[in-house]
Amino acid sequence: EVQLLESGGGLVQPGGSLRLSCAASGFTFSTYALTWVRQAPGEGLEWVSGFSGSGGKTYYADSVKGRFTISRDNSKNTLLLQMNSLRADDTAVYYCARGVDSGSYTPFEYWGPGTLVTVSS
Amino acid sequence: EVVLTQSPDFQSVTPKEKVTITCRASQSIGSSLHWYQQKPDQSPKLLIKFASQSISGVPSRFSGSGSGTDFTLTINSLEAEDAAAYYCHQSSSLPFTFGPGTKVDIK
Q1: Rounded to an integer, what distance in angstroms lies between the CA atom of residue A91 and that of residue A101?
Q2: Cβ proximity of A18 and A118 under 8 Å
Q3: Shortest CA distance to A99 belongs to which of A29, A7, A45?
């Protein structure tokens, strides 16, 4: 059974940093592209960043480019999101998601339960 | 960036009624359009992939159609458990984008 479990969310002051983790199980982690999607309270879904299954390609939304860094540790089956220079509009539930098959980012067939990041003083 | 618009924003429907949600893309995206359902306090769930392809385990009352710029999600014979927000999502080009969502409420 495919499982994704995010952790690392919490309350942080504007300008601060936070690192999110997504622990994966139930599939060959290294062969799948993985993605972070966020959802601000009461709002819709926003694609944040993706990491390819092979080749090490990364992609970012303009809203987080230069502030967020996605990485993965294939030895620990973990996807990471380092978030720096956080702003109030980064407040959201952050989801980790996996595509329907290896080699494809989307569509997102598997989602974690999400972790809440709150940026506030 | 491909902008997705959805209509309606909100729909209140009686059980067994048919629901139609449309998604329009700002440029042609072929069939790279997917639909998700999100119930309150839950993660999104994939309902339809590549405009019209069904997903294992998703009830057959959910179907999708369209290509290019205009797409439709249809829920035949709505059930109470279908109360949720529905989002379209395009994977034709980066950045991947989502529609603003359509909330379906049960009368």
Answers
A1: 30
A2: no
A3: A29
Distance CA B6, CA A81 (A): 30
In A, which residues are within 8 Å of B38 by CB distance?
45
Note whether A100 contacts B49, CB cutoff 8 Å: yes
Q: What letter does residue B96 receive in the DSSP assignment?
A: P
Cβ-Cβ pairs closer than 8 A, A with B, add up to 52
Pairwise CB contact (< 8 Å): B98 & A47: yes
More confident: A96 or A104: A96
* Tens digits of residue pLDDT in B21-77: 999 999 999 999 999 999 999 999 999 999 999 999 999 999 999 999 999 999 999
End-to-end CA distance of chain B: 37
Sheet order of strands, A18-25 included: A3-7, A18-25, A78-83, A68-73
Tell if the CB–CB gap between A45 and B34 is shorter than 8 Å: no
Tokens of B63: 């179907």
